[in-house]
Structure prediction request, 360 residues.
Amino acid sequence: MKRLSMMSMIENKHTTPILLIGPRGSGKTSFLYKSYFKYATDNPDTHFDVMSTPTYNVEIIPYKSHLFQLWDFAEISSCLQYIKDDIRVIIYMVDSVEYSKESVSNKSRENMVWLLNNYDKVLENTIIITVCNKQSENGVMDIQDIGNSWVKDKVLMQLLRGHDWRVFASDSRSGAGIDTILDYIALKLEQRNNSITPWDNLPNPNHLTDAEFKQWFYQEKPFLFFDHYCLIRIIYLTIMNEKPPNILYDILSLQLDNMETTKNSIRYSETQTLFWIQMVSFSLLKYPLLDGEDNNFNDFLIRSKLQQDSWKEYYTLKLFYSSKAAKQFLPPDKKTLPNAFKSSSLALKGRHLEIDYQVL
Prediction:
């Protein structure tokens, strides 16, 4: 199905081109039309039959304040003539059932390495994500194992640096996971659109290695922006470096209270800081680092499955961003936090904390 003509797609200057690539049968067309019927029509549960794609399918998907121009290509070779400077996002879809075959997993990574090696300049500013589709089916390879196979490919990880790469689970036939994927794309596009400011000489934290990011932070230098992912990242790196989390408070307060950057930057909050310290601590207990595994932040995110909106499971928006929560720790009002604390361990206190939490 090609509902819109090629010329109308090109002439629509307000859309965001997204390439959906991956092997045949991985669920790309189902992802496209599940998104189309859900967001572009009044009939989100419309049944559709999927036929083999000759070359490509393309639709405009309205999502929040964005118009995503989503291209579903039959093969990687089919998309090459459409790779241009205006491509903002690439979604690489894998079949989570077939991916357990070594030949399939190797081919998917080889395809991405080839693409980034041959189109590195054109795709320099492109957001790239991996979608592990068919996660609800029997016999699937777990998303964490799929993500680890990419992370352990050092050549691929070097090429993906600066592309805001993440791994997501989905089931395109039911639509599960599509909202999370499009939310992430929308967030990253907004961050990048807002990055052209009078503070352009400031570093984008997403373009820094873990070592560079940690050094810049502890030298108390400003970033272009500082969002919840940055907060999770510095907490993780601090704990892994065996520094007491207490030292975070004063630097975070100085950094965030004086940061005049994009609207995606967060302000300092005792509640938010302690919440993320607890979630990172709990995740390190639940998903310990195994022998031979790297301890970089991307690996940790894949293992822990933490998202920057994970707080919504525990707090209401009103409480989490309240002025009182910024000044002192407030317990969750929706769900009790997982227990990463016990009384026999090191005390963890913020500058104005009214409680005496202990961290493992």
Observations:
- The mean pLDDT is 81.
- Residues 102-118 form the longest helix (17 residues).
